[in-house]
């Protein structure tokens, strides 16, 4: 049985160096919790999109990672917060093809497709918080034991 | 979750029961070691079974101390959860049904109860009653905890088997140098489509396959979700540098696809697996030629 | 296994010249700034030398997000303007699946399974980059 230690972290997002840290932490945490390779990659990619969003549009912030468990299913929750100007038109920001800066307009909308649960709260006063969770949907591969 | 205070009623007997469990730890464990649940799981030696029994008794005493005899989430159980899971799994692997495992767990109660009654020989009947009730509730909770862990282990087993089945049902065949194919048979749901996509793309890498054929001759229906998965597989293969051909779209499925208004426009399709293979071979610079007398006809 | 520093971080991307083809090997995790630097460097190298093809080997890349995806697409587009063709080689299955799920199927991009296959592809006569499919129907 894994312990919760290892998945939990709070990482600053202040530079593109920090994005690398975010990706590597999410990769390790997802592997620890038992996500398969494809799901790990999806989570890391979503985290990368959201962290870049935090950096570019939120003027920096942080990511908190936590292992979660519900009805016997394990998951990884990532919360990205910034104190930036907030997202003026959330619906538009989530729609495909919308871009306000870098990327191909896949940032928020794309990240949403890569995770199971997606929640965003944004206001000009308090900045933006994006909370995503993915669950280990498929059982881990049977270990090589006889 | 905050620890409950040892509540006064109705389990006033929790301290006594905890004391009793600690005092009789050795005897209880000895008796349990002869019960099938312990005897058949801990087979190294009888001592091993006795030690396992003691661990459970200690857990029960701790739970009783905390006054949480009816709380399966009590902290005291956490130490033996893994052991209980192991016991449950071992018994179900031995072919016992859930009910049988459950009754083996119930069989742990009489030896303890007998010891308790012997201990309380001189006590007032009212006290005997509360102690016995508390103990039975505690053991009931233990059974619940054990069943919970056993069931979640069982679910994990089912999941693993389901996964294995999915993989077995998705054989990727190398048809030619650089051409792999997966003949799909049976219903495609979202989970299976996912497995198909991963398995096929992995074999594209392993086999250095420039072409991957998805043959859906054996698939009874295609709904919009499955069609979407097919298109995603094709797009992903393309990103990897391989081309994906979907073959074996039966007339009924073609109709459904048109009815649903699905656009398979970006997907290369062929009527049969043979046609798909011929297409891929041609692309690779190889053609199949009929060696019949009277001339070589391009297929 | 906790690393004290990010592993496989590339701050600078080596570019190798093989005849008239540039071979770029991306490894591990890439800083955004390194990716942008690469894009600039490649544009200049292609403009100042007679390069007819660029092969970008990403078999060692575990994650391609929309930023890196965009950089790859832009490298290909700018090379095309400078009369060089670009092939992205060796994308891993998990990365490809994720990109598709992300909504980024990069239709204009030439791809190949391996660097060798990419070089072979560049050797062949120019065909229009596939838009939505390398489609060469039989006559």
TrEMBL record, chain A:
Span of domain Histidine kinase/HSP90-like ATPase: 38-138
InterPro entries in the cross-refs: HATPase_C_sf (IPR036890), HATPase_dom (IPR003594)
Protein name as annotated: Anti-sigma regulatory factor
Species for this entry: Streptomyces composti
Organism ancestry: Bacteria, Bacillati, Actinomycetota, Actinomycetes, Kitasatosporales
TrEMBL record, chain B:
Keyword Phosphoprotein attached: yes
InterPro entries in the cross-refs: Bact_StressResp_Reg, STAS_dom, STAS_dom_sf
Record key words, sorted: Phosphoprotein
Superkingdom to which the source organism belongs: Bacteria
Pfam families linked: STAS
Domain STAS intervals: 169-280
The UniProt record lists the keyword Phosphoprotein: yes
PROSITE patterns: STAS
Protein name, per record: STAS domain-containing protein
Organism in which the protein naturally occurs: Streptomyces composti
Automatic annotation (TrEMBL), chain C:
Pfam families: STAS (PF01740)
Name of the featured protein: STAS domain-containing protein
InterPro entries in alphabetical order: Bact_StressResp_Reg, STAS_dom, STAS_dom_sf
Superkingdom classification of source: Bacteria
Ranges of residues in domain STAS: 11-122
SUPFAM superfamilies per the UniProt record, alphabetical: SpoIIaa-like
Native organism taxonomy: Bacteria, Bacillati, Actinomycetota, Actinomycetes, Kitasatosporales
């Amino acid at each position: 049985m894994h312990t919760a230690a290892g998945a939990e972290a709070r990482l600053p997002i202040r530079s593109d160096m920090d994005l690398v840290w975010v990706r590597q932490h999410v990769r390790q945490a997802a592997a620890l919790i038992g996500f398969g390779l494809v799901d790990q990659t999806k989570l890391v990619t979503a985290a990368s999109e959201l962290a870049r969003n935090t950096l570019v549009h939120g003027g920096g912030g942080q990511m908190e990672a936590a292992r979660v468990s519900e009805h016997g299913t394990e998951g990884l929750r990532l919360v990205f917060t910034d104190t930036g100007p907030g997202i003026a038109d959330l619906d538009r920001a989530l729609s495909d093809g919308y871009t306000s800066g870098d990327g191909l307009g896949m940032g928020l909308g794309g990240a949403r497709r890569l995770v199971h649960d997606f929640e965003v709260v944004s206001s000009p006063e308090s900045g933006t918080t994006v909370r995503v969770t993915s669950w280990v949907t498929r059982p881990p591969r049977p270990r090589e034991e006889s | 979750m905050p620890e409950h205070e040892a509540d006064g009623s109705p389990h006033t007997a929790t301290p006594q029961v905890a004391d009793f469990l600690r005092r009789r730890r050795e005897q209880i464990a000895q008796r349990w070691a002869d019960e099938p649940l312990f005897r058949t799981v801990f087979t190294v030696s009888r001592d091993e079974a006795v030690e396992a029994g003691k661990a459970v008794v200690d857990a029960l005493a701790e739970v009783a101390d905390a006054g949480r005899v009816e709380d399966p989430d009590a902290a005291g159980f956490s130490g033996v959860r893994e052991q209980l899971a192991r016991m449950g799994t071992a018994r179900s692997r031995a072919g016992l049904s859930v009910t049988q495992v459950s009754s083996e767990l119930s069989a742990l109660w009489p030896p303890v109860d007998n010891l308790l009654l012997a201990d309380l020989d001189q006590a007032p009947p009212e006290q005997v009653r509360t102690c016995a009730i508390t103990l039975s509730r505690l053991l009931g909770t233990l059974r619940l905890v054990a069943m919970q862990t056993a069931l979640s282990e069982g679910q994990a087993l089912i999941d693993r088997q389901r996964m294995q089945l999915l993989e077995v049902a998705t054989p990727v065949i190398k048809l030619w140098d650089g051409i792999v194919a997966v003949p799909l048979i049976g219903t495609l749901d979202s989970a299976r489509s996912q497995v198909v996509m991963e398995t096929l793309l992995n074999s594209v890498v392993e086999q250095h396959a420039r072409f991957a054929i998805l043959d859906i001759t054996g698939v009874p229906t295609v709904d919009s979700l499955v069609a979407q998965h097919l298109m995603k597989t094709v797009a992903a293969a393309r990103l990897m540098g391989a081309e994906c051909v979907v073959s074996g779209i039966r007339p009924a499925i073609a109709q459904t696809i048109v009815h649903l208004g699905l656009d398979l426009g970006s997907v290369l399709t062929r009527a049969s697996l043979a046609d798909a293979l011929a297409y891929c071979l041609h692309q690779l610079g190889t053609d199949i030629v009929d060696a019949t007398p009277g001339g070589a006809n391009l297929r | 296994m906790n690393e004290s520093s990010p592993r496989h971080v590339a701050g600078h991307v080596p570019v190798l010249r093989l005849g008239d083809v540039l071979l770029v090997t991306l490894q591990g995790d890439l800083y955004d700034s390194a990716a942008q630097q690469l894009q600039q460097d490649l544009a200049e190298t292609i403009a100042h030398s007679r390069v007819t093809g660029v092969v970008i080997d990403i078999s060692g890349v575990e994650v391609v997000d929309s930023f890196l995806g965009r950089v790859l697409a832009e490298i290909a587009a700018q090379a095309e303007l400078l009369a060089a063709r670009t092939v992205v080689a060796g994308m891993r299955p998990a990365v490809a699946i994720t990109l598709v799920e992300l909504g980024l199927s990069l239709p204009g991009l030439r791809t190949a399974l391996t660097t060798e296959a990419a070089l072979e592809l560049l050797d062949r006569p120019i065909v229009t980059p596939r838009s939505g499919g390398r489609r060469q129907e039989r006559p």
